[in-house]
UniProtKB/TrEMBL annotation:
InterPro entries for this protein: Amino_acid_transport_2, Hydroxy_aa_transpt
Protein keywords: Amino-acid transport, Cell inner membrane, Cell membrane, Membrane, Symport, Transmembrane, Transmembrane helix, Transport
Protein name: HAAAP family serine/threonine permease
Transmembrane segments: 30-48, 54-72, 104-124, 144-161, 173-191, 211-234, 255-274, 302-323, 344-361, 367-386, 407-425
Annotated localization: Cell inner membrane
Lineage, highest ranks first: Bacteria, Pseudomonadati, Pseudomonadota, Gammaproteobacteria, Pseudomonadales
Length: 426
């Protein structure tokens, strides 16, 4: 198997460009696609959860944001690149760890991503219902009907194909970046220093560590774009061959720098505008920070713009995560022994996604609760721990051993998973 993989790799590298080309439009498209996948419901709920923790935990989380997300996603990208040409993440797992381990990781990969679709389904339904009720003063249709129409509309976009999804997300990113920046700047005159009131209180080390411990899971989720990493790595290997790791790292670093700067500026602007009591109210209402701000301000521009921005953000993240969730579900179906045709498999997956997302969106569970107990910890297992384990065990990844970033990524992954154990125990 290894000899076959090596021969494939050699043939592929022989056809690869001798050196990296200059930065091109496709690289920019992927950079914005990664940004677009990450910025969604998690980001729009991050100010609520992070702000409730107080000033100093928020500052520490802001400093950790870039290294925590960049090193983890780089590790997962390297893992996919270590496999055969054209192999997605589930196939690479099977190649390195065997069929049984491949089936287990495929299952975990699916459960790391699919709950995010459920979270976005709930967030999208709540955003549109709140907009109809508070801004348009229209009684929303029954929740079951509204959620069905919204999810069906997104799945119609999915039918256009993977490249169409990436392009659609990259196009939506431009106005979203401008709008998010506009909102953050607009809030500056409304800063009342709400969270600064907690700056004078330096928490005890045990209290600080506990707050960070429980907040990291939401942070992991908020900057996560692991569902699209597999497709990203496969495309980079096809384009750049043996130079794929170098170019993918460049794209990842720029994407993460953009998202961390934008998101943390937005987070600080929100928490400096709203009091801790108002943040707690937003959490209780199960609304994103944008929907809460729209209801909070009397300014008609903000009242209409904020929910629309939230709609775009959640929609494009839903599309990006659907790529990974469908990839995982298809892998599970194939590994179960059933091998329907490609078109039939696509229809089966789409139908299952529609029904389950619709049911959960209708039931309206707590979004932050789902992030803390399901999304963040399971993502951490796939995004943080699996690539680090592969670096230690897989010969193809041996050259990445001994790096300090490996220890950091492993520690963050263990913290996120232990937070889940704590929440289930209390």
């Amino acid at each position: 198997m290894n000899d076959q993989a090596n021969s494939v790799e050699e043939r592929f590298d022989a056809a690869a460009p001798a050196e990296l080309s200059s930065w091109n439009r496709q690289d920019t498209t992927w950079m914005l696609g990664l940004f677009g996948t990450a910025i969604g419901a998690g980001t729009l709920f991050l100010p609520i959860n992070a702000g409730l923790g107080g000033f100093w935990p928020l500052v520490i989380l802001a400093l950790l944001a870039f290294p925590m997300t960049f090193y983890a996603h780089r590790g997962l990208t390297r893992f996919v690149l270590s496999g055969r040409e054209g192999a997605d993440i589930t196939e690479v797992v099977e190649q390195h760890f065997g069929i049984k381990a491949g089936a287990l990781i495929t299952l975990l990969y699916f459960f790391a991503i699919f709950p995010i679709l459920l979270i976005y389904s709930v967030g999208l339904t709540n955003t549109v219902a709140s907009f109809l009720e508070h801004q348009l003063h229209i009684t929303p249709p029954p929740r079951a009907l509204l959620s069905f129409v919204l999810i069906l509309g997104l799945l119609a976009v999915v039918r256009c194909g993977e490249q169409a999804i990436v392009k659609a997300m990259s196009l939506m990113v431009y106005p979203f970046i401008v709008a998010l920046l506009f909102l953050a700047v607009y809030l500056i005159p409304h800063w009342n220093g709400g969270i600064l009131a907690t700056a004078s209180h330096v928490p005890a080390p045990s209290e600080l560590l506990r707050t960070l411990w429980l907040a990291i899971t939401v942070m992991v989720f908020s900057f996560n774009h692991s569902p699209i990493i597999s497709a990203f790595a496969v495309d980079q290997k096809r384009r750049y061959g043996k130079h794929a790791e170098e170019r993918s790292s460049q794209i990842l670093s720029r994407a993460h720098a953009l998202m961390v700067l934008m998101v943390m500026f937005f987070v600080f602007s929100c928490v400096l505008t709203l009091s801790p009591e108002q943040l707690a109210e937003a959490k209780a209402q199960n609304l994103s920070i944008l929907s809460y701000l729209a209801n909070h301000f009397s300014n008609p521009t903000i009242a209409f713009a904020a929910p629309l921005i939230a709609f775009v953000a959640i929609s494009k993240s839903f599309l990006g995560h659907y790529i990974g969730a469908s990839e995982g579900l298809k892998g599970l179906i194939v590994k179960s022994g059933k091998r329907p045709g490609a078109k039939a498999l696509d229809r089966i997956v789409a139908a299952l996604m529609l029904v389950i997302c619709w049911i959960v969106a209708t039931l309206n569970p707590s979004i932050l609760g789902m992030i803390e107990t399901i999304g963040g910890p399971v993502i951490a297992a796939i995004l943080f721990l699996m690539p680090m384990y592969a670096i230690r065990k897989v010969p193809a990844m041996a050259r990445y051993r001994g790096q300090a970033s490996n220890v950091f990524v492993t520690a963050v992954g263990l913290v996120a998973i232990s937070a889940l154990v704590y929440k289930l125990a209390v």
